[in-house]
Design brief:
Blueprint (H helix, E strand, L loop, with lengths): L12 E4 L16 E4 L7 E6 L6 H12 L1 H6 L4 E6 L3 H11 L6 E4 L4 H6 L3 E3 L5 E3 L3 E6 L2 E7 L11 H6 L2
Parallel strand pairs: 3-4, 4-5
Antiparallel strand pairs: 1-2, 3-8, 6-7, 8-9
């Protein structure tokens, strides 16, 4: 069953590599740390899920979030997080290529466990990608869903585009 507006998200744990100036050196990998949905208690959060780092549609979706990060902050958003099924090292590399520098965090839900609990996972085994996180966006307020948008066509960015998510705030 898919999570709905008004419901609280399940507890989830992710891994990510926090940005630091040392990561400006492409030969530095950083160290993954744990990150929990507990960090979102009492906060307004936008969670954007993409199928994978460095994939055509996903790679093109993120720059608008970076470009509009101040608009999200003006709308009292405390955290903008990207979640996908890639490992934290791939996500760290992708975040660096995207120039996110910690303004937006990229979280690894490597087994899509949390995403499955939300009812928002997609099985892309037929195309060699396994079970993934899908393309959707959640707006949370103190862990409660205030808005959920799921892309009707996985290869397009419409309802999960940064400009559209801003309208939900």
């Amino acid at each position: 069953m898919t999570i709905k507006a008004g419901e609280s998200v399940p507890q989830g744990e992710f891994a990510y590599v926090p940005w630091s100036p040392e990561l400006e050196d492409a030969m530095v990998c950083g160290s993954p740390v744990k990150y929990s949905t507990d960090a979102w208690k009492g906060k307004k959060v936008v969670v954007v899920s993409v199928v994978g780092a460095f994939t055509g549609t996903c790679h093109g979706q993120i720059p608008a979030y970076k470009q509009l990060i101040n608009k999200f902050k003006e709308s009292n958003v405390d955290v903008v997080a990207i979640v996908n099924a890639n490992d934290p090292f791939v996500n760290s590399g992708w975040a660096r290529v995207q120039g996110l520098k910690g303004e937006i965090i990229v979280l690894s839900d490597t087994a899509s466990k949390w995403t499955k609990e939300l009812g928002l996972d997609v099985d892309l085994t037929a195309v060699g990608l396994g079970v993934r996180t899908g393309r959707w966006a959640l707006v949370l307020n103190d862990l409660k869903v205030t808005a959920l948008e799921v892309e009707p066509h996985p290869a397009k960015v419409t309802v999960t585009a940064a400009e559209e998510v801003l309208k939900k705030l």
